[in-house]
Amino acid sequence: MPSSPTHPAPERRPDASALRPEPAERARTVATRAAATVCAPGVEGGRLLAHTVTRAGQVLLVVPADGDIASAVDKAPDQDLSALLMVSDHAPVPLRRPVRAQLWLSGWATPVRPEDQRAALLAFAETRPTEVLLDVGRTARLLRLDLAEVVLGEGGKGVDVSPQEFAAARPDLLAAVEADHLRHLAGAHADVVELLTARVPAEVVGPAGVVRPLGLDRFGFRLRVERPFGHTDVRVPFARPLTCAGQLGAAVGRLLCTARAARRS
């Protein structure tokens, strides 16, 4: 009987395209951020009390009942107002350029019908529970934004995402806990940042580069290399994408073990 091989098979490195989220997933993640404003013809930077994208992919807005956007909707033909929702994704740790990404959602804003309002409020609360929902029907109004175009701006370029892909995608599974993890990493674990930096090619960091944590998602860490003139964003991926948030600790542990072993070799 032939003997079994004594050497393990070489590790299969995942394809580079599999080490980062697809644009639609990234767009849905950015959409979860609270920093947003809404614009419409004749209204720039209209006040927005809250926004969300429901699990079904519907974009909902809460605006002041006496505000410019609500007034513009009332004056629009059939209460169907061309509008643009702009969402900004800010890094939770100090950076020279803190905006990591921006999302532009354009379409038509219209009031949610009274008979649909209860279901819409429940769907809103499921993805973004907020006290302003209690004001809907009194000092606030609930609008839906029927999407025509989705554009994700990240890394100095814009990427078009179809409204259908945007609706079908889901936010990154670490989106709700990312900020706390990054703040803890930046404030209490300089040694971990150093190990992650060791996974970045030396020529990318350079002699004057300062590496800071930029992001964390199910695919791994993102780091920003800040230099006197400009910066570069890089990924340090996990061995494989996470499928649930509970896998994060083990994935980070394996990544750091690999970094330590590489540094000793």
TrEMBL record:
It holds the Pfam family DUF2470. Gene3D superfamilies: PNP-oxidase-like. Residues 1-25 are annotated as: Disordered. Residues 180-250 form the DUF2470 domain. This is DUF2470 domain-containing protein.
